[in-house]
Amino acid sequence: MGSLLPKLGVLLDEEYKLQNNVRRDVQYLQRELQSMHAALREVAEVAPEQLQQHDRLWAGDVRELSQDIEDVVDTFLVRIDASRSDDPAAAAAAAADDHLAEEMLQVADQIATAIKDIKDQVHEVANRDGRYRATTRVPTTTTVDPLLQALYGAKKNIVGIDYAKDEVICKLCEGDDDASKQQLKILSVVGFGGLGKTTLTKAVYDELRPQFECGAFVTVSRNPDVKKVLRDLLYELDNEKHKNLSGAVLLDERQLIDEFRKSLENKRYFIVIDDLWGVEAWQTIRYALLDSNSGSRIITTTRNLEVSRACCSSNNDIIYNMKPLSDDDSQILFYKRIFPSGTACPDDLEQVSKEILKKCGGVPLAIITIASHLAGDHQQIKPKEQWDSLLNSIGRGITRGGGMEEMRRILSLSYYDLHYRLKTCLLYLSIFPEDTEISRDRLIRRWIAEGFFQGVNDGTNLFDLGESYFNTLINRSLIQPVGINAEGRAEACSVHDVMLDFICDLASEENFVTVLDVINEDTPFKRKIRRMSFQKSTSKLITTRLARTSMRQVRSFTIFSPAADQMLPLLSRFQVLRVLDLEGCCLGESRHLSLQNIGNLLHLRYLGLKGTSAHKLPSEIRKLQFLQILDLGKTSATLPSSVVWLGHLICLYLSPGIELPMGLRNLSSLEELTGLSMGCYCADRVKELGHLTNLRALDICWGGSKKQKEDQALVFLDNGTKKVPASTPSKITYTA
């Protein structure tokens, strides 16, 4: 709903000349939806299993309703703005159209009728929830703290931490000289939920604690009561002295910190602060941790790299990245849980067990949970068919029941700690198939096109904002960085199969993404499809199910199947499509004809044709006046002259050799331009670049012979510094 509210404000602008009664209805919708949005964000803070049933139903209704409203508003804005195109051909056609004024009146009548219908729906949903009064969201089930198993589980069940334990102990004890060894040292263990951070630190604590005068092991958790944490620390340091302190609720933080510092004075201590989630909680606890230069040691554990960095602020401190189990240790742990008597794995289960362990990726929580599920009740190992079924379900959001909820609870802690915009960005990753390396730039561009950052008015560039979100998801160990460049930036990311399974499940529950593949090709669609990810195909899926499926509400369509050419005729049925991503797809023999319906996608913001071998874009592309991102990397597509009239285009990515028609100056919103071929028009190109005042990233390609390249470069160097906007960091690429 975050992208809808700003659009309602736009609709109220004087330029749209709404009738007074329609204006009042829009203002009513704006007020009601703001209240709904606040209530929806409150609901989103609570895990589904902890919500009352009517809260879940209400939240689903509000999400669906807000998307329906946004489609209506967008349709109105698109139809109005289509009559204001800067394209001379379009403007001339509009001026010659005697029916234009009549059509605009019809549009106004249609929006009035649509908004009245929506107002009635909003009123109905509002009454159902008692005018948005927050209900008491009491957990409907009793859950067990997942950290208890790590703290108090049987040591004989622990596998694969000996090397990590020795490594951590070595880092805690090392020092260049006696003086450095006496300095306070903090080691922060960071990693993905379920990797075994608590298990590791408990093993280290148990081994080293006797070497210190005093020690404590406390858990902070997601929503900490810092005063309780301080009381727990005091009690663990000396439970006899502080046995009555746990009830001293009237002591404030300062008094507790003072008391704790007194207890640590002139003592060599070892303290573990487990499960830190925020920097603020750490900063308060840190005040209590006295540094008396007596060789004290502190370990913190967290899922958030930013928290680890805050903990390790001195040169003596260490960030320890928790690693997954090795293949051998993963297998030992898996077999120990399923075959506790020490019997060997049956031959018919060996291969499927290897495939399952590959999906677990060395995460102990995933291995233990899945092994427990397969072991069954009373150690009756489940038949191979169920092993195969489980293997196929991991990473698709359908791994539920049979003890799998424990893993879901642990992963949900990280998810529900996110800001609501970050939750949306994370769920969006469910569009991509398992084991996909997802390009950072591609992902951020798609987030922008989806409108996830709409309403953020702090002046931040949208791509920079998207990159900060991308980095936050990495720092919180929710996605893994791939391809770190010289600047230390991740070029791509991947999603662990266990996390992908979790977010696919949530995305399905919230009707956020619909995945189509051969596994669910017979499952009926019960709700409107908003975002469609087409991953694996059969002719049956295309010719039967999709032929009968409504595409009216589909906002995003991504194809990962090689049968993309069979899907493209469906383009004529999309009415509100914002994102069309065909990257890497084969468009068939008649690929230059396959995109003939693309001009009808008036809502389109993102068109990804990278690596498709698309031959030609139709001249009708000029109709896509809301298009923001056009990616033609690794293609040899021919561009029509009308492409320079896409006034909202902010990112244009070309392959070397693609000739961009003259008229570049008309793309006044352009921020990124890559693969611009200078050719024989170098001087003219430079002049045009001078009009692109928003340009912030420019990639230039030279063509022709060596002499021609040198001439082009000289022209650019002579004129470019005067013409290219000063803010543009230009990157010059020479191509053969």
Automatic annotation (TrEMBL):
Domain Disease resistance protein winged helix: 431-503
Protein name: Uncharacterized protein
Annotated Disease resistance R13L4/SHOC-2-like LRR domain residues: 553-715
The organism's place on the tree of life at top rank: Eukaryota
SUPFAM superfamilies xrefs: L domain-like (SSF52058), P-loop containing nucleoside triphosphate hydrolases (SSF52540)
Family statement drawn from the similarity comment of this UniProt entry: Belongs to the disease resistance NB-LRR family.
Recorded GO MF terms: ADP binding
NB-ARC domain sequence ranges: 163-340
CDD domains membership: RX-CC_like
Keyword annotations of the record: Coiled coil, Leucine-rich repeat, Nucleotide-binding, Plant defense, Repeat
Ranges for domain Disease resistance N-terminal: 1-85
UniProt keyword annotation of Nucleotidyltransferase present: no
A biological-process GO annotation: defense response to bacterium
Pfam annotation, one family: LRR_14
